[in-house]
Design goal:
Number of helices: 7
Low-confidence stretches: none
Structural class: alpha/beta
Order of helices and strands: EHEHEEEHEHEHHH
CATH superfamily of the largest domain: Response regulator
Number of strands: 7
Mean pLDDT: 90
Shape: elongated
CATH architecture of the largest domain: 3-Layer(aba) Sandwich
Number of domains: 2
CATH topology of the largest domain: Rossmann fold
CATH class of the largest domain: Alpha Beta
Distance between the termini: 60 Å
C-alpha cells in the first residue's frame, strides 16, 4: 500500500526529529530519510525524491530557509518549515524560498497531517501551472517562428499566406519533421526557394 506521503526530515534536535518521524508514521506516511544539516537536506531530497521535506529553522550548519532555497534550486519538492517561534522575517524569507507550510514546535500531531497534505497539494498545483506555462510559451514561440517563415516565403516567393502555410506544412509532412523545425530551416536559409514546392 502506497504511503500517504514519502517524507524527509531535517532537524538538528534528535528528539524533535523522532517525534516528527513517529507522527508521520502514525498518520500513514513513510520517513525516507533524516538528517541535521543544510547539506543533508539537498542530498536526502535528491536521493529519495520525497513528496515533502520537513526542515527545522535551526540546523547545525545553517538555516532551514537556506536549505529550502538549495532544495528548490536543485531538486524541488513540497517544503514545510518547523520552527520554535513565529518570526515574520523568517516566514517571509521562507515563503520566498519556496516553503509551502509551517509547523510550530513543540509539534502538535493533529496539525502535521493537514499541513503536509496542503503543502504537497499546493506544490503539485504550482508544478502543473509551471508546466502549462512552459508549454504555452513553447507554443507561442513556435507560432512566432512559423509566422516569420510564412512572411519570408510571402516576401521572397510572392505566395499568399495560405500558400505559404501549405508549403511549410507539406515540407514538414514530406520530411517527417515538426513544422516549427521547417520554419527554423527557412529562416536560417539564405534562399527560401530551398523549401520543397507543393505539387
Amino acid at each position: 500500500m502506497k504511503p500517504r506521503w514519502k517524507v524527509v526530515i531535517v532537524d538538528d534536535h534528535a528528539a524533535s526529529r523522532s517525534l516528527v518521524a513517529e507522527t508521520v508514521g502514525a498518520q500513514g506516511g513513510l520517513v525516507a530519510g533524516n538528517g541535521s544539516r543544510v547539506e543533508d537536506a539537498v542530498l536526502l531530497v535528491e536521493r529519495y525524491k520525497p513528496d515533502v521535506a520537513v526542515l527545522a529553522v535551526g540546523l547545525i550548519d545553517g538555516d532551514g530557509v537556506d536549505a529550502a532555497r538549495q532544495v528548490m534550486a536543485t531538486c524541488p519538492c513540497a517544503l514545510v518549515l518547523l520552527t520554535s517561534r513565529t518570526d515574520s522575517r523568517v516566514a517571509a524569507r521562507a515563503v520566498e524560498a519556496g516553503v509551502l507550510g509551517f509547523l510550530v514546535k513543540p509539534l502538535r500531531p493533529e496539525e502535521l497531517g493537514p499541513t503536509l497534505d496542503l503543502a504537497v497539494s499546493r506544490f503539485r498545483e504550482l508544478a502543473a501551472a509551471r508546466r502549462e506555462n512552459e508549454e504555452l510559451k513553447k507554443k507561442l514561440e513556435s507560432k512566432r517562428l512559423i509566422d516569420r517563415a510564412k512572411a519570408l516565403l510571402i516576401q521572397r516567393l510572392g505566395l499568399t499566406e495560405a500558400e505559404a502555410h501549405r508549403r511549410l506544412q507539406k515540407t514538414a509532412m514530406d520530411t517527417r519533421r515538426p513544422m516549427v523545425l521547417v520554419a527554423q530551416a527557412v529562416l536560417l536559409s539564405v534562399d527560401a526557394r530551398s523549401v520543397r514546392p507543393s505539387k
